[in-house]
Amino acid sequence: xxxxxxxxxxxxxxxxxxxxxxxxxxxxxxxxxxxxxxxxxxxxxxxxxxxxxxxxxxxxxxxxxxxxxxxxxxxxxxxxxxxxxxxxxxxxxxxxxxxxxxxxxxxxxxxxxxxxxxxxxxxxxxxxxxxxxxxxxxxxxxxxxxxxxxxxxxxxxxxxxxxxxxxxxxxxxxxxxxxxxxxxxxxxxxxxxxxxxxxxxxxxxxxxxxxxxxxxxxxxxxxxxxxxxxxxxxxxxxxxxxxxxxxxxxxxxxxxxxxxxxxxxxxxxxxxxxxxxxxxxxxxxxxxxxxxxxxxxxxxxxxxxxxxxxxxxxxxxxxxxxxxxxxxxxxxxxxxxxxxxxxxxxxxxxxxxxxxxxxxxxxxxxxxxxxxxxxxxxxxxxxxxxxxxxxxxxxxxxxxxxxxxxxxxxxxxxxxxxxxxxxxxxxxxxxxxxxxxxxxxxxxxxxxxxxxxxxxxxxxxxxxxxxxxxxxxxxxxxxxxxx
DNA sequence: CGAGTTTGACCGGCGC
DNA sequence: GCGCCGGTCAAACTCG
Length: 483
Hints:
- It contains 16 helices and 7 strands.
- The protein has a 7-stranded mixed β-sheet.
- Helix 3 packs across helix 6 (178-187), helix 9 (315-335) packs across helix 15 and helix 12 crosses helix 14 (413-423).
- It is of the alpha/beta class.
- Helices cover 49% and strands 9% of the residues.
- A hairpin with a 6-residue loop joins strand 2 and strand 3 (273-279).
- The protein binds a DNA duplex through helix 7 and strand 2.
- It holds the Pfam family WRKY.
- Residues 248-314 form the WRKY domain.
- Residues 70-118 form a coiled coil.
- Residues 37-56, 190-249 are annotated as: Disordered.
- Keywords: Coiled coil, DNA-binding, Nucleus, Transcription, Transcription regulation.
């Protein structure tokens, strides 16, 4: 395939060697420069002042003999300057275009996700209708798999009102227009506009009310579970959490975001306290995270993210944010739901072991994806290359250009989960970026808690074998362990 | 002095 | 109804 290229290269080399004016390397700073100068001049044969430290730099710097030459040079200079100006203008134009493209891409990406989530919601609404028609006697797998309790329509409408209020009062910048708000209300939906003002500035009463209102929502969600869980679940109304397990000596992995600690608690079953953080990169950013050391292995730091950022993120932060938000949206868009639902859900790919991935969610208040970056591997990227395409080829033949039937054997759980990751391009990309950064960064003691890049997660060494192992994580429903 | 952290108290859900 | 538990608040405290 590369033969013509090779031939062309070798021909080019031959041309160079056989040329009557071969290229020569000139060391301008060598002590033998004088000699070099002379030889260069000799070769060119047109230098009259022998022995002078003249340097041939490839430009025709011969003395200008006539007025005509002067004029020519002047014209050339003017032309060059004009060209330079044009190039500069072009550069500016391109830069602004790039900025515009970046903005458009961000908006489009958000919109795409919103649409996908909306479709999933519509689908589940349809499912709801069907289920309620069938009657309550027919138990659905959703009852076992639904990670979060459901709500009655009444409550749903209240929440729509809240959404409106949120829209009216939101102090988010332009970039977080309706799209962002919808995303937040989708993934978190427990963050009303009260969050738009920092906790420290809220009056005690409003603060209480404001902070409790999300709680009330959750309570409303969790009520009525036993009665009509199968008929009233609203997928996009659920909270999703993304948990990252990483080895780190530091008290907190640095993910590029700024966090403010607002509480600490010693949770049952773990002597290590759990710290609660809020994102402070923008006013009212709903993202929160919990940081806790693993009880079994204290070198493992478990960071749980919740919600979507409503502000632009620096590159270092966007890797983690993309990963978590994509994982969360993947989770919410189907991976924790029943097989049937999932297959037809907006995620658009079959998920043969969907229920396997979601089994643990029934006992957890929120669906949680756990990214396990604690396992070591000689070459995690290689494993990822081996595994990701396997599932991806089966699930995304169009994308990957693979035509024909899927591989023969039923997929392993690992493949299935890998497929879930693969099916969400943003997640895959983010994950790949994270792992790439891992590979690039030597394992260190994780220099300090806050700020910096996501390489600390990397330092915990990621790898790409996907296994299901949520049992050791009390709040996980799905674990992607990169081994 | 402002920003961030600590820590005891409070609240609501949930199981018994 | 009571107690446990997770999550949050906010005053006090620390730090730069």
